[in-house]
Design brief:
The complex is a heterodimer.
Chain A (H helix, E strand, L loop, with lengths): L3 H10 L15 E3 L6 H10 L4 H15 L23 E3 L13 H10 L5 H6 L16 H6 L2 E7 L2 E5 L2 H7 L2 E4 H7 L1 H7 L10 H9 L4 E5 L8 E7 L10 E6 L4 E9 L6 E4 L2 E6 L4 E8 L11 E12 L5 E8 L4 E4 L2 E4 L5 E10 L4 E10 L5 E10 L4 E10 L7 E10 L5 E10 L5 E10 L2 H8 L5 H12 L1 H4 L4 H14 L6
Parallel strand pairs in A: 3-7, 6-8, 7-9, 8-11, 9-12, 10-13, 11-13, 12-14, 13-15, 13-16, 14-17, 15-18, 16-18, 17-19, 18-20, 19-21, 20-22, 21-23
Antiparallel strand pairs in A: 1-2, 3-4, 5-6
Helix pairs in contact in A: 1-12, 1-14, 2-3, 3-10, 11-12
Chain B lengths: L3 E10 L5 E10 L4 E5 L6 H9 L4 E10 L2 E2 L5 H7 L1 E4 L6 E5 H15 L7 H14 L4 H5 L1 E2 L5 H15 L3 E5 L7 H13 L6 E6 L3 H5 L4 E6 L2 E6 L2 H9 L2 H7 L1
Helix pairs in contact in B: 2-3, 4-6, 6-7
The chains are: A alpha/beta, B alpha/beta.
């Protein structure tokens, strides 16, 4: 893929440790009172006009959370988080659910323009712009996607979903794609049936916290036998100071359905750390397939390690039906701390789970990420390809768990974890756990750690490439297997992002 | 004006302080093919690396002029864009990067440094196909990672392919004959000979006279203890083959 010359241009344009998405949008916002107690939970629930059953669900989670302790087993170090010193709800002031883009605060739209989010897909629908024509938007984050069109977007700003595109067209296909706050009102039967069914409210400290205070997020339901006609996408943005973001995503693919979902995240540059504790639940019924891709680019902190997002995320997919398939693909470049293990429960016979990951750490970033593949059904298959790249003074850990239940006859797993070190002040760690309770299970594990050698850099440089171009080329070669799993337009963007993240790590 | 002038070059290995080149002076004319021969440790490979700008070597005295302009302060990629090419003795593997991608990235990087536009895809494909065909490099090799899983002969052929695509003005071939059987040696030599032109100079570094039967040099320089101790015509190579290097190592001492 000849994206490398572009990446180099991009790298040149960007100064060391300049985070492109670090602007703040000046929008008046309405916040819940600082701190966390039952009243905060009630406040959020009331703001969302939630039914009593939803409030009860939240309160139960909150009461449980109070009895829980923050986990300490991950290889990350950070100052103690004061959960009372943050806001748990922030919404653009005078916010009313917009009926169309015209109702959205123009200041917000400008923010998304800067991010290059194709909210203006609506231009296409409205006939203002034909597909493939260049947009007036000058942001370039998603230019590839814009030109190919056909991506439905849900945008979440601090605690509120501000706009969802292509709603009507999706509706015709029978696909429900809306903010989860709306789904609670409009589809309570689906929410009651599936919310918390993959990640229970009691699951872990951060997931329980999320259950109590989650503010918004995306909801997707693809009915039986429907192949979702376009990529679905959500953009998350934390804008407010001292605000945590707790979004909740729930995706259900009914029997024989297929959906591909993309998630992108950015945040302004702030001196203090901001907390992000999301929960994503996926449910795939018989013969269904869900493909979930993430490009995570939260603010990583400055060159001295000050500021940045604390990213504590619980993502889990349940292959509930036979022959179902869930695949996670992630490109992780941001956040000061990443604690994230997108997992698959392979419950249905012949179900399949996949995890493809590129985790890049630079500066003082700390990443502890990996996956869990829980084989419960017969002849279940899982595949893990993890590529960790550490530069600067960062620490990058892969942590993976593969288990086969007594009933999981014929379970198979293949794991490949490769680490690449750039420079000599960073660290890469691999912590695989494997447990087979069925003697027919076959687990394979491969791991390697390598360094970008002086020889390799000089070889490329002697052919005409700068140190940055050479590093970008070598790194792109290293992550190729995973990039191939991303939707094409996303892969090009991810490639650029990788180069930008590694800027200043050589020479 | 000569294309390349190396003037009284003194070079040490940075960390060890070990001196390798000791006042080496050498001039390469435009279009000239110069063979550099010499015993192990005489500084042949160091000369190749210093010309290409490899980090880790300190030039303590002297200069290297290309078209009268010093290249000592230029980064390796700037030298490449000026037309310096090094065919490595041990070509490096770059896993996951297809040879095709590598070639194109390198070519476009050079063109950009020279202020030229990027090469178009059809033009590039045509160029690679023609050159690869002559060198017996198939599509499969072009799709594989750079030098990954290549045999010794394939690696050397791939180096010559890079040279053919990048069209340097001064090519340094560092022991391109090492590890080649007779057939591979012939293919590689033919590839090099096709690239000979009045506009292109070459420095062919080798231990053995054998390579020079295929790539016939205009001039032969003998290197010993970090300096040129004798210069002659192509017949000098035959003399060395017969008598060995002992006399020069003694002379230089």
């Amino acid at each position: 893929m000849p994206a490398v010359p572009e990446t180099v241009d991009r790298v040149r344009q960007i100064d060391v440790d300049q985070y492109k998405y670090g602007f703040v949008t000046d929008i008046e916002s309405e916040k819940a009172p600082k701190g966390l107690n039952e009243d905060t939970v009630r406040f959020i629930s009331a703001k969302k006009n939630e039914p009593q059953w939803m409030l009860d669900w939240r309160l139960e989670a909150f009461r449980r959370w109070q009895t829980m302790r923050e986990p300490t087993w991950a290889r990350v170090h950070y100052p103690k988080i004061d959960y009372q010193d943050a806001y748990y709800y922030a919404a653009p002031k005078a916010f009313k659910a917009p009926k169309s883009l015209a109702d959205v605060d123009p200041e917000l739209l400008r923010t998304y323009e800067k991010l290059g989010i194709p909210l203006k897909e609506q231009e296409i629908l409205a006939g203002v712009r034909k597909q493939g024509e260049p947009s007036q938007l000058d942001g370039d984050m998603m230019e590839g996607m814009r030109s190919s069109g056909r991506v439905a977007v849900d945008a979440v700003f601090d605690s509120v979903s501000v706009a969802t595109t292509f709603k009507e067209e999706l509706k015709r296909a029978g696909v429900i794609f809306m903010p989860i706050s709306e789904a609670i009102q409009e589809h309570p039967e689906l929410i009651k049936k599936y919310l918390g069914s993959v990640v229970p409210t009691s699951d872990n400290f951060f997931a329980t916290l999320n259950s109590a205070v989650f503010s918004d997020g995306s909801f997707v339901y693809v009915p039986k036998g429907v192949r979702c006609p376009m990529e679905l996408s959500t953009y998350f943005r934390i804008n407010e100071q001292n605000t945590g973001q707790f979004e909740r995503t729930l995706i259900i693919a009914d029997a024989g359905a297929y959906v591909s979902y993309l998630e992108g995240c950015t945040a302004p540059m702030r001196d203090e750390n901001q907390l992000h504790a999301a929960v994503v639940e996926l449910v795939a019924l018989d013969d269904a397939e869900i493909k979930y891709s993430t490009v995570q680019n939260w603010y990583p902190g400055d060159a001295d390690g000050k500021g940045g997002i604390f990213n504590f995320v619980t993502k889990r997919g349940d292959c509930r039906g036979k022959n179902s398939k869930i695949s996670w693909t992630q490109v992780e470049t941001g956040s000061a701390i990443t604690w994230k293990y997108p997992s698959c429960i392979l419950r249905g016979d012949n179900s399949r789970g996949e995890f493809y990951s590129i985790a890049i750490s630079n500066g003082y970033q700390q990443v502890d990420s990996g996956t869990k593949m829980i084989h419960l059904g017969k002849n279940t298959v899982s595949r893990i390809i993890s590529k960790g790249i550490s530069a600067g003074k960062s620490q990058n850990t892969y942590r993976g768990l593969v288990t086969a239940h007594r009933r999981a006859t014929g379970a198979r797993n293949f794991t490949n974890c490769d680490s690449l070190l750039i420079g000599d002040k960073c660290g890469a760690h691999t912590v695989p756990y494997m447990e087979a309770k069925n003697s027919s299970a076959v687990f394979e594990h491969e791991a390697s750690t390598s360094k970008i050698s002086e020889d390799m850099l000089f070889y490329c440089q002697s052919r005409g490439m700068s140190a940055e171009e050479a590093t970008a080329l070598v790194v792109n070669g290293f992550v190729k297997d995973v990039l191939q799993q991303l939707p094409m337009e996303f892969a090009v963007e991810a490639q650029k992002l990788i180069s930008i993240s590694l800027e200043g790590s050589v020479g | 004006m000569s294309l390349l002038e190396i003037k009284n070059l003194h070079v040490e290995i940075e960390d060890e302080g070990k001196k390798i080149l000791n006042g080496l002076t050498l001039t390469i004319e435009k279009g000239q093919v110069a063979a550099i021969m010499g015993p192990n440790g005489s500084g042949k490979s160091t000369l190749a690396y210093v010309l290409a700008g490899r980090p880790g070597y300190a030039v303590t005295e002297g200069d290297i002029l290309l078209d009268g302009e010093s290249i000592l302060d230029m980064a390796p990629n700037e030298r490449a864009a000026k037309g310096v090419f090094l065919a490595f003795q041990y070509p490096v593997e770059v896993p996951g990067v297809a040879t095709m991608t590598f070639l194109r990235t390198a070519l476009n990087a050079q063109r950009k440094l020279r202020g030229e536009g990027e090469i178009s895809t059809p033009e590039f494909l045509k160029l690679v196909r023609a050159e690869a065909g002559d060198l017996g490099i198939n599509q499969d090799m072009l799709r594989r990672g750079v030098n990954v899983g290549f045999s010794g002969g394939e690696k050397k052929r791939a180096e010559i392919l890079q040279m053919a695509i990048l069209q340097p003005r001064i090519a340094v071939l560092d022991e391109t004959d090492s590890g080649l059987d007779i057939d591979a040696l012939r293919i590689v030599s033919e590839g090099v000979n096709r690239l000979r032109s009045p506009e292109r100079s070459m420095i062919v570094i080798t231990h053995y006279q054998r390579l020079l039967n295929y790539i016939v040099p205009d001039v032969v320089h003998v290197l010993a203890k970090g300096r040129v101790v004798r210069t002659g015509g192509k017949e000098l190579a035959l003399e060395l083959e017969a008598k060995g290097y002992a006399q020069y190592t003694d002379e230089a001492a």
